[in-house]
Amino acid sequence: MSALAATASRMLASSQNQAIGTAVARQQINAEKAVAGLVAETAQGAAASGPPAPSGQGQRVDLRV
Questions:
Q1: Distance of alpha carbon 11 from alpha carbon 19, whole angstroms
Q2: What is the pLDDT of residue 42?
Q3: Among 13, 58, 63, 64, which residue's CB has the most CB atoms within a 10 Å radius?
Q4: Domain coordinates of the chain in residue numbers?
Q5: How far is Cα 34 from Cα 21, in angstroms, rounded to an integer?
Q6: How far is residue 54 from each of residues 33, 61, 63, measured CA to CA in Å?
Q7: CA–CA distance from 46 to each of 28, 51, 58 (Å)?
Q8: Residues 6-25: b if buried by 16+ CB within 10 A, e if exposed
Q9: What is the mean pLDDT of residues 26-55?
Q10: How many Cβ atoms are within 10 Å of 51's Cβ, its own excluded?
Q11: Composition bias, kind Low complexity: at what positions (predicted)?
Q12: Can you give 18-58 as a three-state secondary structure string?
C-alpha cells in the first residue's frame, strides 16, 4: 500500500471514530435530559397530589413498641 493510501485510510478511520464518538455523546446528553424531565415531572406530581405535611413531621421518632 502506498504512503498516500495508508494516510488516507488512517484519516478515514479517524473521521469515523470521531463521528461515532459524537453520536454517543449526543445520545448520552439526550438520555440525561430525558431522565431529568422524568424526575421533574414526578416531583411536580408528588407535590400536587396531597396536602402539605404538618409542621414538625419527621422530626421525632417514636420508639415505643
A1: 12
A2: 84
A3: 13
A4: 1-42
A5: 20
A6: 34, 15, 20
A7: 27, 10, 17
A8: eeeeeeeeeeeeeeeeeeee
A9: 84
A10: 5
A11: 43-59
A12: HHHHHHHHHHHHHHHHHHHHHHHHHHHHHHHCCCCCCCCCC
Nine-digit cell at 34? 430525558
Set of cell numbers at residue 24: 454517543
Three cell numbers, residue 40 = 421533574
Cell of 32: 440525561
Residue 44, C-alpha cell as written in the block? 411536580
Average pLDDT for residues 2-14, to the nearest whole number?
A: 90
State the cell numbers at 52: 402539605
Chain position carrying cell 498516500: 4
